[in-house]
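Researcher: Quick test of sequence recovery. Tokens follow.
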């Protein structure tokens, strides 16, 4: 399965809280474009505060797609995302508009530009068997089945380790063999990674978390009736649930989410550094990022 972006596409990537949404809207306005979300959690309907969706007034400036479209109780993955993106991008181009992809989910963005191998669907019985084992046991099994690819997997992520093992066991092939297509050339699109100095990004993350709580994120989480396993992984959801149950204080909850978000931003930056040919823009030093992006189109 190959990437699905036409060459006029502009990608605006970067870590959480860096300031992607506003700049993407400005780029879309300048180019006559429409925003296509590339965020694994903003794609869900509901939990707008927790997922830090763009403000309604900002989204009203240009058309936005793949934001707030999937029910919270529906499981979602990169293959489903690619299917939706194909339909969305085709429609945007047919209208004579420019797709402006904006988001921070590295796997979604890589799949858009380099494609994604066809892998087997989840096997409920096998997953149940794997879930009964401890994480160290699972990691050891994965090391034996995919010794070369194990270093590319987040071994602290129970779900990802199980998925990698599942693919190995169902196909008889190493999980890493399904990602060899990523060695191929990426789709010829313009891709930009926004960044800020670490201290500045940390301040923005901490402030945004405080603003989320002031905006009623605890009540937002408490109102959720049903949520899928994939949506449940949204940053801060588990901690806020614990806080609502009295299992941690509000201050402890805020601090935990801030730390988790900082860690996530660090992983995002590591991922984007592996994307060859993507142009980096430090928003603290580049005085006219809009002109830098739109001036090369």
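Model:
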């Amino acid at each position: 399965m190959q990437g699905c972006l036409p060459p006029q596409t502009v990608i605006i990537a970067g870590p959480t809280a860096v300031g992607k949404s506003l700049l993407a809207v400005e780029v879309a306005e300048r180019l006559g474009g429409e925003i296509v979300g590339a965020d694994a959690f903003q794609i869900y309907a509901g939990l707008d505060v927790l997922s830090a969706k763009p403000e309604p007034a900002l989204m009203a400036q240009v058309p936005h797609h793949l934001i707030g479209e999937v029910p919270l109780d529906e499981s979602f993955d990169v293959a489903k995302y690619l299917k939706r993106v194909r339909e969305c991008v085709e429609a945007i181009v047919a209208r004579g508009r420019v797709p402006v992809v904006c988001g921070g989910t590295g796997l979604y963005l890589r799949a858009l530009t380099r494609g994604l191998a066809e892998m087997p669907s989840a096997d409920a019985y096998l997953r149940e068997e794997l879930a009964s084992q401890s994480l160290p046991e699972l990691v050891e099994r994965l090391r034996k089945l995919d010794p070369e690819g194990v270093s590319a997997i987040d071994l602290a992520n129970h779900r990802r380790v199980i998925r990698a093992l599942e693919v190995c066991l169902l196909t008889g092939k190493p999980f890493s063999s399904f990602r060899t297509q990523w060695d191929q050339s990426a789709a010829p699109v313009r891709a930009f990674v926004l960044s800020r100095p670490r201290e500045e990004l940390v301040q923005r993350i901490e402030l945004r978390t405080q603003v989320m709580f002031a905006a009623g994120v605890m009540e937002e989480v408490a109102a959720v009736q049903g949520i899928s396993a994939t949506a449940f992984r949204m940053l801060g959801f588990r901690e806020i649930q614990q806080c609502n149950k009295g299992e941690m204080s509000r201050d402890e909850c805020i601090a935990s989410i801030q730390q988790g978000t900082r860690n996530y931003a660090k992983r995002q930056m590591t991922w984007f550094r592996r994307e060859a040919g993507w142009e980096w823009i430090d928003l603290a030093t580049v005085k006219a990022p809009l002109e830098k992006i739109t001036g090369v189109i």
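The chain has two domains: 10-115+186-294, 124-183.
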